[in-house]
Amino acid sequence: MCGCVHSSRDQELHLEGDPSLSAAPTSTLAPRKMPKSISISKQLASIKELKKGSDLEKAIATLALIFRNSSDPDGKLGKATAKNLLQTQFRNFTEGQETKPKYKDLLSELDEHTEDKLDFEDFMILLLSIAIISDLLQNIWSVKIMN
């Protein structure tokens, strides 16, 4: 979707606790090492570097974990799975967008994606693109932050 080139150097996921979980996946998007039955909040809590992490760091880590928990063993999302995540995990951003041309274009681009699967970078770009055009973002911008 974005045409960006990925870094050839993978980052290592550092987990604290169960030694089988920290057994050196070679990428943050490596095949699932934590069963889906473990909640995202517990998975976040198991990441030593995020114990004192910022809200933004935890938000990105949450996105990465949801992606990883939903991806196939190659660390990719099928189009149907991506659309399901949009409907179930991102519905407040997608509601009411169905008739907007930009939203339709984004979904068409997803359908026409040359590969049948999305990597993490493409999925993040899709989420950000939808968030930017959403009505919810406009509501977020209007929230009063000071008295």
From TrEMBL:
It comes from the Eukaryota. One of its GO terms (molecular function) is transition metal ion binding. InterPro entries: EF-hand-dom_pair, EH_dom, S-100_dom, S100_Ca-bd_sub. The gene is SNTN. It comes from Ursus maritimus. PANTHER family: PROTEIN S100-A1-RELATED, S100 CALCIUM-BINDING PROTEIN. CDD domains: S-100 (cd00213). This is Sentan. Transmembrane segments: none annotated.
